[in-house]
Amino acid sequence: MKRFLISALFVILGTAAFAQDDDVDTLFYVRPNFDKGYVFLEEGGVQQGVINICNIDQTVRFIDPMGDTLVMEGSEKALKVTIGQTTYYRFKDRFTEMVDYAGDVALGLQRQAVQIDNAKVGGFENASATASVESYGVDAMTGLYYKHIDFLPENWSYSNRFVLYKDEKFYLANKKNFLKCFPNKKDVIEAFTGKDKNALSTPEKVKELFDKLK
To answer: pTM of the full predicted structure?
Structure first.
């Protein structure tokens, strides 16, 4: 059973902040550990903390000085998150990791956990809409609202998708957008895709074409 506190404020942590050294579940989180990072918000503010990104709900999670794992309220308003040397941009409700570059075009990876089995029994013996059972309450010491999550890894799997990023805009990684982002590489793109409508239907194929365009 894990408890996540939903705080009204994102805790600002200094250089002496608590850090989590133990590995975390990389199905539940984007990164194998929490690390110092920055969250850039729509309104222009920047928040700093020991953070990670949840694969399940695409929220920013952080460690407070007491060692509790909390959800950053307003994660959906984050334009960009940097953790260590890695940058994540939000695109279509998912955080997108910049993983490769070809000139002025970047290849972004969107990774999200998806349910395999959603027929779990929740309260009152009714089937739950999620593969975890949640309950809610108020922390007696802090007064903060929290939720309990019973996460069952065997009921989840990964969904990976590559996207293209150019001139501060994201594009789905299909043939049309490859041609738009690489107008001078039409011959390479046409030779790779041909008349096959499924030539870019898998992340592996998208990455293969991107590598040819470097």
So the answer is: 0.67
